[in-house]
Amino acid sequence: MNVPNIRLYFTSLEVPGDLAMKETIVTLTGRSHAIICNYKSILRYQQEEIIVLGFHGKIAIRGKRLMIPKYTPEEMQIEGMQTHNDFFPGQSLYPVSL
């Protein structure tokens, strides 16, 4: 089944597209709060940088005093002063080289 047919199939079942296509969702609130949903793993966790592996790329959040106060297999909350947020599409394999 090709990609357009998969999207049509999941749409007909009323499954949200982001879940059906394994899209990572990043919600930013100001410069001090982020929520990342639908991800694979954490690649790097430091006070100055958190890198998350999504299904279609990497998400890098850089800043100061970054921490993850809430973490589940489906969602994580990141707090701290964010200075840069980047997405690197298609880079879903180890090692981390940004």
Shape: globular
Element order, helices and strands?
HHEEEEEE
Distance, first to last CA: 34 Å
Main beta sheet: 6 strands, antiparallel
Q: How would you sum up this structure, described in words?
A:
With 98 residues, the chain is mostly beta strands. It contains two helices and six strands. A six-stranded antiparallel β-sheet has the order 1-2-6-5-4-3, with no helix packed on it. The longest helix has 10 residues, at 3-12. The chain starts with a helix and ends in a 9-residue tail after the last strand.
Brief summary:
This protein is 14% helix and 51% strand. It has helices at residues 3-12, 17-20; strands at 25-29, 33-37, 41-45, 49-53, 57-71, 75-89.
Features:
single chain; 98 residues; mainly beta; six-stranded antiparallel beta sheet; 2 helices; 14% helix
Describe the protein's topology.
Elements: H1 3-12, H2 17-20, E1 25-29, E2 33-37, E3 41-45, E4 49-53, E5 57-71, E6 75-89
Antiparallel strand pairs: 1-2, 2-6, 3-4, 4-5, 5-6
